[in-house]
UniProtKB/TrEMBL annotation, chain A:
One of its GO terms (cellular component) is endoplasmic reticulum membrane. This is GPI ethanolamine phosphate transferase 3, catalytic subunit. It comes from the Eukaryota. InterPro entries: Alkaline_phosphatase_core_sf (IPR017850), Phosphodiest/P_Trfase (IPR002591), PIG-O_N (IPR037675), PIGG/GPI7_C (IPR045687), PIGO/GPI13 (IPR039524).
TrEMBL record, chain B:
GO terms for cellular component: endoplasmic reticulum membrane. The chain crosses the membrane at residues 12-30, 42-63, 84-102, 114-136, 156-176, 182-210. This is Phosphatidylinositol-glycan biosynthesis class F protein. The keyword Transmembrane applies. Keywords: Endoplasmic reticulum, GPI-anchor biosynthesis, Membrane, Transmembrane, Transmembrane helix. It holds the Pfam family PIG-F. It comes from Eleutherodactylus coqui (Puerto Rican coqui). GO terms for biological process: GPI anchor biosynthetic process. Pathway: Glycolipid biosynthesis; glycosylphosphatidylinositol-anchor biosynthesis. It is found in: Endoplasmic reticulum membrane. It is a multi-pass membrane protein.
Length: 1085, 220
């Protein structure tokens, strides 16, 4: 058996998947670090001598502001073209804006308002309140809620004593929880509802504005956006909605005084189909309309004003309202707003000062950011910093020698400085945008292609490997050599700075070289004997492929991703039902008679290959359905399904008020825990793996109950901490830390024991006078069934080996008078180690979850057991031992579907707010010193189902051999009556069949691994494609992108644990070899 | 060998069965006030099941697809009728259980689920009962690869398969957020089952005719 190449093979395949994921992520997932620094009145960005006297950074111009956000207000909607005689439904509807800009050019102005991608509402709200470029993942201190952690306009307003009243879209509630002086939120979720939000706002808007109990009013209308999603812009509804907005603005203006600034802005535009989210011109061009009853602009514009980047609103509003610019702002002030209609020089001086203040703030932010994170290119930052310091020096020098210059000279100099500062600000924003807010389509497509080819490689290995052993040298060695040399050459080229590439690209290139050379070698080596291409096409339509296709397609629909918790079990049940039905259709199984009222006179003439398995399989199917349904009780909810109630089992036990219920649930959980351990021990006992006195068996006998006891103590303490006496508080606190850590230590000890000596075979030697035999048993020693479980093949094989050894050694006839050896649990030695590992992992994972999720884990194990049993029976019914080595596709698919299902049934959802953050503190009550351990704990909690199922996936190969026993026994039972002699030949060998054919065993493991990777990889690929293709979709940042992240991480976890599981099987195999060797040596003596 | 006359009888029977579904759609508006397929779906479920079962019984009496070789006494007939009803009821319960295990709501809309189960039973079990009689062995035999012994058996295989696949496919629109009235449980599933059933009825004669060379039946 070739162990190392097998593992290397699978590792390489996994790595090529990882590089695909990495490449895609680098192109798709825009990332940025959030800083928690806040700007303060008392701390201007840096002391500058020439700032204008002001209480807070800059003299205040407006006391009040009304900010009206009209969602998806495109520039085309707001632009009025009087020459257009035949306007489309969305054109020329906002007449009031045109009227004001033409009649009062110094009071009103309309700008194109350029939004940064991603153009989704939440990211845009973040954008024009923080002044930064929000990405999908703003890595901040808190993942659990969407609340903005960064410094922002709203925060600054409130900090500086402004009363902020909000009305409209309830997204703001999530972003600024409990921040507003007064607020009227309306649900934004239902895209089809055009009026609830708008009518709600209109009820409150004018009374509030008239009331005077406010400084800033923000109103966020959603009707236009929803109209776009529902009907598209080119529709009569849009016209109606825009006319209504026109009415709103004109009425609002009547209610304003001349101390108030009115801002009407769209958060983004929309495409011709009414969608948004991407970076096309139509989506990013929104409208910005500014108006005040006091004159706002110095001069009249001759042409259409230039586009204003959305972030520019933030510093402009801050300075106009006399509050500090938010710390992370990257915008520049809107030039026109600061050329006040006073005398020109004063205006110029004040504008320069505002620009300088703005530039100082941006420089300060870039400085802090580059200290916190390294994703901005250092050389560009250095250039920027140099530029800023030279501009500052120039500015200071000019101000110092102010008196020596004429007014014109001074103005010209100031103009130059303003231009310099403006271009500095633009460049700074550009640099940040480059690394934060731009998709890389090439990276995304290449990532997809790498994933696709990896899946393809998995498939051809899985399908072609069965013929014979794979030539590892050509398929593993050469490609690996090629790819390493290619990487080395690329590395050399980069080192010599011939080409410039980042690490991701190098990694991807290495993967591509590997895959290509692998495929080439595969074609030339195996091309002749490949049979997989000759398969009839209708096989694609067989059960597992249909289910896999449905599953992959379902990942492209947001509703299906939201409903995945129901879809996965549905597909799982369907798949297994179809498998059993097909078994019947192929006449491999006949159902038992169901005849409640006696026999029918018309009995069918055929006597089928009657087997008892029919009723057993039906029972298993029913049990599977029951498990699936019950595990649905532990679901969690996401915000897309407002009617959903999260399961009450998700909250920790300590949150239960009623002591009776608390005690009862506690007892139930402990009983479930006990059941798990009891079942596992029963199973081990049944196969005779609990008889030996090896440390591992002792661990199972004593360590498992100890762990259960520890968990019970921990739960008791953690659920009742508040009740404990003050004196005992310290003690309980200590126990809360110590008991989980003790369990971690125990579990680690168990895993180490398995690695050290995974053999759970009990050998009983007895002096035998008849002949020397090596026999295997399962069951308790001395049981009545003992004699039935002899494994004569092993005996014969061993005898043969013994003989040959004896002959070689020339010892002569000595060995024949040795002792007989009986081995208990030899037939299930691989599975036993596997099952023990799984149970240790389960116990630890249970502790990381909320107490009342224990039944969910019991159901998980039961379901896995049922799937394995169905698979074992079906495999044994279809084949007579030979095909057992190849795990069929349906079983692997069912296994991975069950893993997805139990992701949900252990209380998870693929969204960030649903992550169980509490799990990071099990055993670390006082928090952590680093980030790695909590991240690992949270990951273990989130992907517990993936961990258990992928670590246990080897059982799919082993189980049919375990199930072999009963059928073979029955066969033998029949034959026994006729001829007693055949008994020897039909004894179950169980897992020892695998040892008989080590080459096929390793190929079978490889195939199983590639099949599992293929199925996981195809799901991942569809998630990736969904995120890429639907990056304009309304739900991309809420549904598809988080789903992709969870799926990607899940894939990494699954493949790692798959490798570990296979490594464990190989370790057991190693140990079994040694065991046999020792046995032979013993016999020799 | 293939019996042309038998195939013709089968086709006639299938047309009648298909008409039963059409009748259940066409007649109720005259009987009930404001009847609509989606609005008063439960009524339609009842009517459709009743129509389908009635036509199946009529076919049993007229076409006699399963000629009994033995003369049977009155008590024997009563016994058979009793068992037929029992089988049908058990199959309804079984279907109900299976549907719930597949994810149908357990407590809410029990009535809907049960009537859907009745509909499925009338598409599948009632045909089995009429063609094969309350004989479980025969059922098991028919639903295996080489089990069909007459054109009726084949048509039974095809319609049952189509009805169940239709019901299965009918579950797929339910999670979508289109807010259509037919996405409500169990409308899409029952419509899917009905479409499948009718499609199976139409398909079966053609399929059998197409494969007539391949199909040879052992004489009973
Ligand atoms: Zn929006
Ligand atoms: Zn929208």
């Amino acid at each position: 058996m070739r162990r190392a190449p097998l593992l290397l093979y699978l590792t390489w395949l996994s790595v090529s998947f990882y590089s695909g994921i990495w490449l895609f992520t680098s192109g798709f997932l825009l990332m940025r670090i959030e800083l928690n620094n806040q700007s303060r009145c008392s701390e201007p960005p840096s002391p500058a001598p020439h700032r204008q006297a002001a209480p807070c950074w800059f003299p205040q111009r407006f006391h009040k502001a009304v900010i009206v956000i009209i969602d998806a207000l495109k520039y085309d909607f707001a632009k009025y073209n009087p020459a257009n005689n035949n306007p489309k439904p969305y054109e020329n509807k906002l007449g009031i804006i045109h009227q004001l800009t033409t009649s009062q050019p110094q009071h009103a102005r309309l700008y194109p308002f350029r939004a940064d991608p991603p153009t989704t509402t939440m990211q845009r709200i973040k954008g024009f309140t923080t002044g930064s470029l929000p990405t999908f993942v703003d890595v901040g201190s808190n993942f659990a809620s969407y609340a903005i952690q960064e410094d922002n306009l709203i925060h600054q307003m409130i900090q500086n004593g402004k009363r902020v009243v909000f009305m409209g879209d309830d997204t703001w509630d999530g972003l600024f929880p409990k921040k507003f002086y007064k607020s009227f939120f309306f649900p934004s979720f239902n895209v089809k509802d055009l009026h609830t939000v708008d009518d709600g706002i209109l009820q409150h808007l004018y009374p509030t504005v008239d009331g005077g109990d406010w400084d800033v009013v923000i109103a966020h209308f959603l009707g236009v956006d929803h109209c776009g999603h529902k009907h598209g812009p080119d529709h009569a509804e849009t016209a109606k909605k825009l006319t209504q907005m026109n009415q709103v603005i004109s009425t609002l203006i009547d209610h304003l005084d001349d101390q108030t600034l009115l801002v009407v802005a769209g958060d983004h535009g929309m495409t011709d189909t009414g969608d948004h989210g991407g970076d096309s011109e139509k989506e990013v061009t929104a409208a910005l309309f500014l108006y005040s009853k006091a004159p706002l602009f110095a001069d009249q514009l001759q042409t259409d004003p230039p586009a204003v980047p959305q972030v520019n609103l933030v510093p402009s509003l801050s300075l106009l309202l006399g509050i500090p610019i938010p710390y992370s702002n990257l915008g520049a002030i809107i030039d026109d707003l600061f050329g006040f209609p006073r005398d020109k020089l004063t205006a110029q001086l004040s504008k320069t000062s505002a620009y300088h203040l703005n530039a100082q703030q941006v420089a300060r932010y870039l400085d802090s950011y580059s200290r916190a994170a390294g994703d901005l290119p250092a050389d560009k930052l250095r250039v920027l910093a140099d530029r800023f310091s030279s501009l500052t020096a120039e500015y200071e020098q000019l101000m110092a020698h102010q008196e020596q210059q004429s007014e014109e000279e001074l103005e010209a100099h100031l103009q130059m400085i303003i231009q310099g500062l403006r271009s500095y600000l633009d460049q700074a924003r550009e640099v940040c945008m480059e690394s934060w807010a731009r998709f890389h389509p090439l990276h995304m497509i290449m990532g997809c292609i790498i994933l696709l080819t990896s899946c393809f490689l998995c498939y051809i290995i899985a399908e072609a490997g069965s013929a014979s052993t794979l030539p590892y040298k050509y398929l593993l060695g050469y490609p690996l050599l090629f790819s390493i040399s290619a990487t080395a050459m690329l590395g050399l080229a980069i080192w010599m700075s011939v080409v410039e590439l980042d690490l991701v690209t190098v990694c991807a290139a290495a993967t591509i070289v590997y895959q290509m050379s692998f495929y080439f070698n595969f074609r030339t080596r195996k091309g002749s004997e490949m049979s997989w291409r000759k398969r009839p096409i209708y096989l694609i339509l067989s059960g597992p492929w249909v289910v896999l296709l449905v599953r992959c397609c379902s990942l492209f629909s947001d509703s299906y991703v939201v409903a995945e918790a129901n879809v996965a079990p549905f597909l799982l049940t369907s798949l297994l039902t179809v498998t059993v039905v097909k078994l019947h259709w192929d006449s491999k199984l006949m159902l038992p008679t169901f005849n409640p009222l006696g026999n029918e006179s018309l009995k069918p003439s055929l006597t089928p290959t009657y087997r008892k398995d029919g009723s057993r399989l039906l029972g298993l199917l029913a049990a599977l359905g029951l498990c699936v349904r019950l595990s649905g009780l532990f679901h969690n909810c996401r915000e897309e399904t407002p009617d959903c109630q999260p399961s009450s089992f998700l909250s920790p036990l300590s949150s239960v008020r009623d002591p009776d219920i608390k005690n009862f649930s506690y007892l139930c959980c402990i009983v479930c825990l006990g059941f798990i351990v009891f079942f596992i021990r029963k199973w081990l006992q049944h196969y005779g793996n609990l008889n030996s006195s090896s440390p591992l068996v002792l661990y199972v006998r004593w360590g498992f109950p100890l762990i259960v006891l520890g968990i019970a103590c921990y739960w008791a303490l953690s659920s009742g901490t508040e009740d404990s006496l003050a004196k005992l508080r310290e003690l309980t606190h200590l126990a809360l830390v110590v008991s989980p850590r003790a369990i971690y230590a125990l579990a680690a000890l168990g895993l180490l024991l398995i690695l050290w000596n995974p053999i759970t075979i009990f050998m009983k030697s007895r002096a035998s006078d008849e002949d020397n035999t090596v026999t295997t048993y399962h069951g308790a020693p001395g049981s009545a069934a003992e004699l039935q479980h002899v494994i004569p093949q092993i005996y014969r094989k061993m005898q043969r080996t013994l003989k040959s050894r004896l002959q070689h050694g020339g010892v002569g006839e000595d060995g024949k008078k040795g002792t007989a050896v009986e081995a208990y649990g030899l037939g299930s030695v691989y599975s036993a180690a596997m099952v023990i590992t799984i149970s240790i992992l389960t116990l630890v994972l249970i502790m990381l979850h909320s107490e009342r999720l224990t039944p969910a884990f019991l159901l998980l194990l039961l379901e896995a057991f049922i799937i394995l049993h169905i698979h074992g029976h079906v495999a044994n019914l279809y084949s007579d031992g030979v095909e057992l080595f190849s795990v069929p596709w349906y079983a692997v698919l069912a296994w991975s579907l069950a893993a997805s299902q139990h992701f949900y049934s252990t209380g998870h959802q693929p969204v960030f707010p649903a992550i169980h953050w509490n799990s990071a503190f099990v055993g670390f009550q006082d928090g952590h010193t680093n980030n790695i351990i909590p991240a690992l704990m949270v990951a273990a909690n989130t992907f517990s189902a993936s961990i258990l199922f992928s670590a246990g996936s080897c059982l799919l190969l082993l189980w049919p051999f375990l199930c072999e026993a009963p059928t073979a026994r029955r066969k033998k039972g029949k034959k026994e009556s006729r001829e007693g002699d055949t008994e020897d030949h039909d004894m179950p060998m169980m897992e020892m069949r695998l040892r008989e054919d080590p080459d096929r065993f390793s190929v079978a493991l490889l195939q199983l691994g590639t099949k599992y990777l293929f199925i996981q990889g195809v799901q991942l690929l569809s998630c990736v494609c969904a995120a890429m293709i639907l990056r304009r979709h309304l739900m991309v940042w809420k549904v598809f992108a988080p789903k992709f992240l969870f799926e990607g991480l899940g894939f990494v976890v699954s493949s790692l644990f798959l490798l570990l599981g296979i490594a464990l099987v190989l370790r057991v195999d190693c140990a079994v070899s040694n065991w046999f060797k020792r046995l032979i040596v013993q016999q020799n003596r | 060998m293939m019996d042309e006359a038998e195939l013709r009888r089968l086709s006639a029977g299938h047309i009648l069965c298909g008409l039963a579904v059409v009748v259940s759609l066409g007649v109720p508006p005259f009987l009930f006030e404001d009847f609509s397929l989606l609005g008063s779906h439960l009524t339609w479920l009842c009517v459709c099941s009743a129509c389908v079962i009635t036509v199946n019984v009529l076919l049993l009496l007229t076409l006699k697809p399963n000629p009994s070789t033995k003369r049977s006494s009155f008590t024997h007939k009563v016994n058979k009728l009793y068992r037929t009803c029992l089988y049908f009821f058990v199959s309804c319960l079984l279907f109900h259980g299976i549907i719930v295990l597949y994810g149908a709501p357990l407590v809410e809309s029990v009535g809907e689920t049960f009537l859907f189960a009745v509909l499925l039973s009338s598409f599948t079990t009632s045909r089995c009962l009429c063609i094969l009689g309350p004989n479980f062995h025969a059922w098991i035999r028919v639903f295996s690869k080489d089990g069909a012994m007459s054109v009726w058996d084949h048509s039974l295989q095809i319609t049952t398969f189509c009805s169940i696949v239709g019901a299965w496919l009918g579950a797929f629109p339910i999670p979508l957020d289109w807010d259509r009235p037919w996405q409500v449980w169990p409308i899409s599933c029952s419509l899917g089952a009905t479409f499948g059933y009718v499609a199976g009825l139409l398909l079966a004669p053609f399929w059998i005719y197409w494969n007539r060379k391949r199909l040879t039946y052992k004489s009973r």
